[in-house]
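Whiteboard transcription, Tuesday session. T.W. wrote the structure tokens on the left side:
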């Protein structure tokens, strides 16, 4: 069995290549939106941007993800993977891309880790609003994009 790496087109020195099975998504949508929202793009163009992740202790994960989400969504969460460092590596931004990559048979994916979930959201907003992969006049990421 060979490993299939889904590499993001956007490159950054902070990118880490991780096994998908070491990651735990923070959200799993019951409507399978990853199949219509991101799977066609992954198949035709590849992964534009890396998944944005953070690390939680099992207790933090329980409080922030399991108890912090609505009961319907929490019931769809798979058991969290505790890694060798004792932490759960949580996909904060990119859960649909994570799901699609799994279904497409990928085993590895590009990720960037942040110390805080807010930083994951800020970078995701920068990707969304500036689209630096396709917009060459985009200003460099400076961490100033907040929740919308």
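and on the right, the sequence the group agreed on:
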């Amino acid at each position: 069995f060979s490993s299939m790496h889904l590499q993001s087109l956007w490159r950054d020195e902070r990118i880490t290549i991780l096994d998908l099975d070491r990651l735990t998504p923070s959200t799993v949508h019951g409507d399978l939106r990853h199949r219509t929202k991101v799977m066609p793009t992954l198949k035709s163009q590849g992964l534009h941007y890396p998944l944005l992740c953070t690390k939680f202790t099992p207790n933090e994960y329980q409080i922030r993800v399991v108890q912090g989400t609505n009961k319907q969504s929490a019931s769809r969460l798979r058991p969290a993977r505790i890694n060798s460092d004792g932490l759960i590596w949580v996909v904060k931004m990119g859960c649909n891309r994570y799901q699609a990559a799994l279904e497409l048979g990928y085993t590895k994916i590009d990720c960037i880790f942040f110390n805080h979930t807010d930083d994951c959201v800020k970078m995701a907003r920068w990707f969304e609003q500036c689209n630096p992969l396709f917009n060459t006049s985009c200003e460099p990421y400076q961490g100033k994009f907040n929740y919308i």
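Someone added at the bottom: The longest strand covers residues 51-56.
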